[in-house]
Amino acid sequence: MGENVLTKEGYDRLQAELKELKEIKLREVAVRIKDAKDLGDLSENAEYHEAKNEQAFLYGKVLGIENKLKNAKIIDGNCANRDTIDAGCCAEVENRGEVIKFYFVGSDEVDPANNKISIHSPIGSALLGHKAGEVVSVSTPGGEEQYKIKKIY
Predict the structure, then answer these.
(1) Quick one: DSSP state of residue 1?
(2) 4-74 belongs to which CATH class?
(3) Shortest CA distance to 17 belongs to which of 56, 57, 61?
(4) Which fold does the domain 76-152 belong to in CATH?
(5) Beta bridge partner(s), residue 152
(6) pLDDT in tens for each of the 153 residues of the chain?
(7) Helix (H) or strand (E) holding 95
(8) What are the residue ranges spanned by the domains of the chain?
(9) Which of 55, 89, 98, 110 has the fewest CB atoms lying closer than 10 Å?
(10) DSSP state of 131
């Protein structure tokens, strides 16, 4: 797996989720497995099989988060002194007369409702490395769109 770009907040959120999985969720499912074993015949014990499946799912989730954290590249989000758009930056861009503020984040922190777009998305990757004042052509499903970079911060 390659580098996983995260803000400090995103990194902390993943660490908190990992802690909850290890210290709460996996312990709860272990108790459920023990209780189901105490009921006897495991071959027809739906509670046991359900708990084992959940345990496997949770272990997979733990491994995935650990891998993301191990390969994390923390971005500081301070782009006030930068000339070009980069991961962690915020930029105001104009498209079709509308000014939009985009936050450029890694894939794990995408939040379209709050204008957090992935640096790997069509718009994000097209705008990376460009300066304020530049007009960038972005290929979208609806055709080519023009984005004018107004401000980077």
Answers:
(1) -
(2) mainly alpha
(3) 61
(4) Chitinase A; domain 3 (3.10.50)
(5) 91
(6) 568 899 888 999 999 999 999 999 999 999 999 998 887 777 778 889 999 999 999 999 999 999 999 999 998 777 767 889 999 999 999 999 999 999 999 999 999 999 999 999 999 999 999 999 999 999 988 899 999 999 998
(7) strand 90-95
(8) 4-74, 76-152
(9) 98
(10) B
